[in-house]
Amino acid sequence: MLKSFRKPLHNMEPHYISENTLEKKRRELGLSHFVKLGFNENPYGPFPSVISAMRQELENLNRYSDENFLEVKRLLAEKFQLDIGFIAISHGAENMLQTLSKCFINEGDEVIIPKNSFRLYQDYSKIMGAQIKLTTLKNYKIDLDKIINEITENTKLIWLCNPNNPTGTIFSQDELIDFLNKISSDIWVVVDEAYAEFVNDDKYPDLSQIIQNRKNVMSVRTFSKAYGLAGARLGYVLANREVVAIINRVSQPFNANRIALAGAKAALLDKDYFEYTLNELKNNRNYLMKSLHNRGFNVVESHTNFVFFEGQFSAKQLQERLLKRGIFVQAGDGWGYPQGIRVTVGTWGEIEAFLTGLDQVLQDLTT
């Protein structure tokens, strides 16, 4: 049976613990619910204004989403001070990553990917038949110099995650510009900025400006994280208008649903509630990092809505024991960190539940 599928699919592994696997675990353990701190969802979304807008849109589901589709693009153009022709919308950021793979990768093309990063870059590149080169991180941060050293005349595309998932680290505007100046403009550079809204650092790159002068660079973003619309599945790309024209050829027509677009429009307009949720999450993030540091863990400074840390115990072991206590986090072994844990920044109550569960697990492991 397997021989009937495309060859790149034969050796691909499932993408960490899925929602279905988690629900199965919950039933097996006899738990009423999990404290879900593994998918980097925003516990403060959807915004009240967003829920209202989405409900009102229900009666229009018999029509395609042309008006709101253009309105969301207009609001994004205003947000990033770009012409509307620099923006393309998709069914979630993952769908845009897949679309970009279809646009740029031919079978046999060389693609460079940081090893300890979002796994879908490898998956989509493999599906397209790419030859993949993996580079290691330096101090949990994407090492742009190592990527430069791996570039050959066959290199077609480079995937970058900034802030990086799962480590939460960033590279700066100066570092990115220096990197781009050293590589050929014929190499496509895709920067996944799913967590960009959570960054406080003034040195963080401004891709909305960079893409206007560099046709080979693009930024992929999402409404899933900071805007609290993970279940609505809406993403977008900022890219040169010539690139957007190609993306639109590959994308489906009306490739976003009316309810998601109505929610995105409301979220972009509700700047006060957006700022409120960001402030809450940043305060909770600081508390979580400090609490983990006080427990002796090696905590990586986070620029996202999750925190990555390492300790002396197996990440898989910690994950399984926390699951039995009704708390779900992601083990880092799939990213090359067998003692690393990625935990979502939740509400204050969710963080306290996680820390209490973690203390119990640590006590069990040390006695």
Automatic annotation (TrEMBL):
Protein name: Histidinol-phosphate aminotransferase
N6-(pyridoxal phosphate)lysine PTM positions: K225
Cofactor: pyridoxal 5'-phosphate
UniProt pathway annotation: Amino-acid biosynthesis; L-histidine biosynthesis; L-histidine from 5-phospho-alpha-D-ribose 1-diphosphate: step 7/9
EC primary class: transferase
Catalytic activity field: L-histidinol phosphate + 2-oxoglutarate = 3-(imidazol-4-yl)-2-oxopropyl phosphate + L-glutamate
PANTHER family for the chain: HISTIDINOL-PHOSPHATE AMINOTRANSFERASE, HISTIDINOL-PHOSPHATE AMINOTRANSFERASE 2
NCBIfam families documented for this protein: hisC
Keywords: Amino-acid biosynthesis, Aminotransferase, Histidine biosynthesis, Pyridoxal phosphate, Transferase
Highest taxon above the source species: Bacteria
Subunit and partners: Homodimer.
Aminotransferase class I/classII large domain residues: 33-355
Coiled coil: none
GO biological process, one term: L-histidine biosynthetic process
Transmembrane segments: none
Keyword Amino-acid biosynthesis in record: yes
One of the record's GO molecular function terms: pyridoxal phosphate binding
Matches recorded under Gene3D superfamilies: Aspartate Aminotransferase, domain 1, Type I PLP-dependent aspartate aminotransferase-like (Major domain)
SUPFAM superfamilies reported for this sequence: PLP-dependent transferases
E.C. numbers: 2.6.1.9
Family to which this protein belongs: Belongs to the class-II pyridoxal-phosphate-dependent aminotransferase family. Histidinol-phosphate aminotransferase subfamily.
InterPro entries xrefs: Aminotrans_II_pyridoxalP_BS, Aminotransferase_I/II_large, HisP_aminotrans, HistidinolP_aminotransfase, PyrdxlP-dep_Trfase, PyrdxlP-dep_Trfase_major, PyrdxlP-dep_Trfase_small
